Amino acid sequence: MGTIDILAETRQIESDIIQWRRALHQIPELGLELPQTVGFVTHILDKLEVTYDDSYVNGNAIVATIVGTKNTPSERVLAIRADMDGLPIKEETGLAFSSINDNMHACGHDGHTAVLLGVAKLLQAHRDQFSGTVKLLFQPGEESPGGAQPMIDEGVMENPTVTRVIGAHQGAISPESTGTFNLKSGPLMAAPDIFSIEITGQGYHGAYPESSHDPIAALGQLITAIQTIKSRNIPAIEPAVISITRVQGGTNHNIIPERVFVEGTVRTLNEAVRQHIKDRLKQICLGIGATMDLDCSLTYTDMYPALINDNQVTEDVYHSLAELFSETHLNRLEKPLMGGEDMACFLQQAPGTYFFIHNPGIIDGKFHGHHHPKFDIDESKLHLAVAAFIKITLDYLN
């Protein structure tokens, strides 16, 4: 560990981390357009004299690079990722530092970004404590449409090549979460795909259905058939979710519409199961279209892959955290989640792990879930998150 007292030094910068988080909380931006957020982050990096490149994703993503100066040469390159985007939600927390626009940081990404700035501050000050290179990935668009893959496509995992990648999510993501740090090897989060189906028939007066090609009748069969995919085509022990979440069609009580529209989500942890569900949806649409003499058209969108943590990296991270924190801070998760996260894209490029920081914030006497207008995080644990990343970094790069 050299001369750095990790917990003491993170406590010393705790007020900075909280100040950064609150400033970011006031300016939430959406998707792949984060000009104010990027401006704030680069301003802090400039003050810290950290080298960065903010040209990625049309100037909406940042890669900061810190090279260790310890005498031992190392080819190891550790990437640490934080997402920066907010959500189109009107904030109702009543916090003094509430959003000043119509968006909200309702998923903790303000905390993620502030923590990574804290990591930058301490690593820049202690470059003599490690060899190798640290890349800090400030990512847009996690909520939508996905910012990890565009960054990868533009080369953030290369020059130098990342050999390990880590990240963490704040709030209360898993119902199993306790303590502060929650880790799991293997599958952690699902691939969150989207499907939409348009059924086009022939509309007619509701009194004369025989003259129509009724898309609503076809819709009933479609919904029933889709619900049997999980129960009849997927092994019971294999996690999978198929949810129909939107149905639109019709204009009046006595008119059979020409067209109805269905939308939903598919969540899987296994790539073979993912493909099988996609194939079954295609077969069902073709079959119902032929049976009901109408057109049943499927659009299936592959979103992020399933998030799979590397077993060895997860164990290394757990060991590092166990050396720094008491057992009350640490928890091993048993079950994966069916939510999605595009950190999965980075984990397909290099071995790594993604873990959960349990820091739910209390508003009006209780914690309100992620993506809720009263969502908040507990700022008192932000410096512990910085300490965790510093410890993991120094252990890996020494």
TrEMBL record:
<feature type="binding site">
    <location>
        <position position="143"/>
    </location>
    <ligand>
        <name>Mn(2+)</name>
    </ligand>
</feature>
<keyword id="KW-0464">Manganese</keyword>
<keyword id="KW-0028">Amino-acid biosynthesis</keyword>
<dbReference type="GO" id="GO:0019877">
    <property type="term" value="P:diaminopimelate biosynthetic process"/>
</dbReference>
<protein>
    <submittedName>
        <fullName>Amidohydrolase</fullName>
    </submittedName>
</protein>
<dbReference type="InterPro" id="IPR002933">
    <property type="entry name" value="Peptidase_M20"/>
</dbReference>
<feature type="binding site">
    <location>
        <position position="371"/>
    </location>
    <ligand>
        <name>Mn(2+)</name>
    </ligand>
</feature>
<dbReference type="GO" id="GO:0009085">
    <property type="term" value="P:lysine biosynthetic process"/>
</dbReference>
<dbReference type="InterPro" id="IPR036264">
    <property type="entry name" value="Bact_exopeptidase_dim_dom"/>
</dbReference>
<dbReference type="Pfam" id="PF01546">
    <property type="entry name" value="Peptidase_M20"/>
</dbReference>
<keyword id="KW-0378">Hydrolase</keyword>
<dbReference type="InterPro" id="IPR017439">
    <property type="entry name" value="Amidohydrolase"/>
</dbReference>
<keyword id="KW-0457">Lysine biosynthesis</keyword>
<feature type="domain" description="Peptidase M20 dimerisation">
    <location>
        <begin position="196"/>
        <end position="285"/>
    </location>
</feature>
<dbReference type="Pfam" id="PF07687">
    <property type="entry name" value="M20_dimer"/>
</dbReference>
<feature type="binding site">
    <location>
        <position position="107"/>
    </location>
    <ligand>
        <name>Mn(2+)</name>
    </ligand>
</feature>
<feature type="binding site">
    <location>
        <position position="109"/>
    </location>
    <ligand>
        <name>Mn(2+)</name>
    </ligand>
</feature>
<dbReference type="InterPro" id="IPR011650">
    <property type="entry name" value="Peptidase_M20_dimer"/>
</dbReference>
<keyword id="KW-0220">Diaminopimelate biosynthesis</keyword>
<dbReference type="GO" id="GO:0046872">
    <property type="term" value="F:metal ion binding"/>
</dbReference>
<keyword id="KW-0479">Metal-binding</keyword>
<dbReference type="GO" id="GO:0050118">
    <property type="term" value="F:N-acetyldiaminopimelate deacetylase activity"/>
</dbReference>
<feature type="binding site">
    <location>
        <position position="169"/>
    </location>
    <ligand>
        <name>Mn(2+)</name>
    </ligand>
</feature>
